[in-house]
Design goal:
CATH superfamily of the largest domain: Nucleotide-binding domain of ferredoxin-NADP reductase (FNR) module
Number of helices: 8
Structural class: alpha/beta
Shape: globular
Order of helices and strands: EEHEEEHEEEHEHEEHEHEEEHEH
CATH class of the largest domain: Alpha Beta
Largest sheet: 7 strands, antiparallel
Low-confidence stretches: none
CATH topology of the largest domain: Rossmann fold
Strand order of the largest sheet: 6-1-2-5-4-3-7
């Protein structure tokens, strides 16, 4: 069992947990995720590790309340315990000094982007973060994003904060003004699709984290099948990050819609 050290609401339906998990904290890298279970008969749910503190032996998870399992997790308070936690899982993000890197995070996708921003910054990259949300109250973790970025552009659909427009507007503005060596995008599948279409037009190499489609996280359920470059891949064991220009996002969106 893993003790919840702290709990904080980032918005009405998004909760940040700091959880005791010393072995995971010690070995996790940017891009890794864990499988969480609440209750002995609870569903196994994958969550990307937003950050880790080796000295405290804790990891941070950012959870959006969207269904029964995430609701059960979000009802837990500091001092209570998560029944099971397994990880780190998945393939870590490839980190090197690429040059100028755009990190495009939408909604809750900003949380799993944080360790990637930090690792890219520590590797000597110029990190430009473009984060987006529907409105001001849904912008999360901006303070940490600024800590790991050379520049931050905030986009909101309604213009209530930052600049009015979609995340692609912010990304395109950066690409048009300077040479970009790599783009990484995490967020809703439809957002990643359009970021990918944009960067493909400008021939900017792009990786997308497809963690939103994962279910059991072990490759057994097959729910996270995606087509990448004409080949079938499993997000949880082959990813979660793939060359965005090779991903069949239309197929992925159809599979996600099946769960509705």
């Amino acid at each position: 069992m893993n003790k919840i050290i702290s709990k904080e609401y980032l918005s009405e339906r998004v909760v940040r947990f700091e959880v005791e998990a010393p072995l995971i904290a010690r070995s996790r890298k940017a891009g890794h995720f864990v499988i969480v279970r609440v209750g002995k008969k609870g569903e196994r749910v994958p969550y990307t590790i937003a950050s880790a503190d080796k000295n405290r032996g804790t990891i941070t998870l950012v959870v959006q309340r969207v269904g029964k399992s995430s609701e059960k997790l979000c009802l837990l308070e500091a001092g209570e315990y998560i029944t099971d936690m397994v990880g780190p899982l998945g393939k870590a993000t490839h980190i090197e000094n690429f040059g100028t890197v755009i990190c495009a995070g939408g909604g809750v996708g900003v949380a799993p982007m944080l360790p990637i921003m930090e690792a890219m910054k520590n590797a000597g990259n110029r990190v430009i973060s473009v984060i987006a949300a529907r409105s001001k109250e849904l912008v999360i973790l901006e303070e940490l994003v600024r800590e790991y970025s050379d520049e931050v552009i905030v986009m909101t659909d309604d213009g209530s904060y930052g600049e009015k427009g979609l995340i692609t507007d912010g990304v395109e503005k950066v690409i048009q003004r300077e040479n970009v060596n790599l783009c990484i995008t995490i967020g809703p599948a439809v957002m990643m699709k359009f970021v990918s279409m944009l960067t493909k037009k400008y021939e900017v190499p792009t990786f997308a984290s497809l963690n939103t489609i994962m279910v059991d996280g072990t490759g057994m359920c097959g729910a996270c099948r995606v087509t990448v470059g004409g080949e079938t891949k499993f997000v949880c064991i082959d990813g979660p990050e793939f060359d965005a220009h090779q991903v069949d996002f239309d197929e992925m969106l159809m599979r996600l819609n099946a769960y509705k």
